[in-house]
Specification:
0% strand; mainly alpha; 94 residues; 69% helix
């Protein structure tokens, strides 16, 4: 929500800090997910890499004050976060 609000308010200079915080949290998931099936673990690893790449892009576009590309990259970022969430049981997020 914080990243979305920052983009919506067009305060793009703050995008990188939030995106990198999310990236850092996402990077901890594989170590905490020993119980995932092999196919889900592979998907998680792929999505963690994608979040890292997208955070870099958000940093670049935010620093350039490029709202269009920041917003587009954010949409992909959210889709990838949702893909990660779908790998876990619903009760994991309560």
């Amino acid at each position: 929500d914080e990243l979305n609000k920052t983009i919506q308010s067009k305060k793009l200079e703050g995008v990188h800090e939030i995106a990198f915080s999310i990236r850092d949290l996402v990077k901890t998931l594989p170590a905490q997910s020993a119980g995932l099936a092999a196919d889900k673990k592979a998907a998680l690893d792929k999505n963690v890499k994608e979040i890292s790449d997208l955070a870099e892009q958000l940093d670049k576009y935010g620093d350039a004050n490029d709202l269009k590309n920041t917003s587009s990259t954010y949409a992909t970022f959210v889709q990838t976060i949702n893909a990660i969430k779908s790998l876990y049981p619903e009760e994991s997020f309560k």
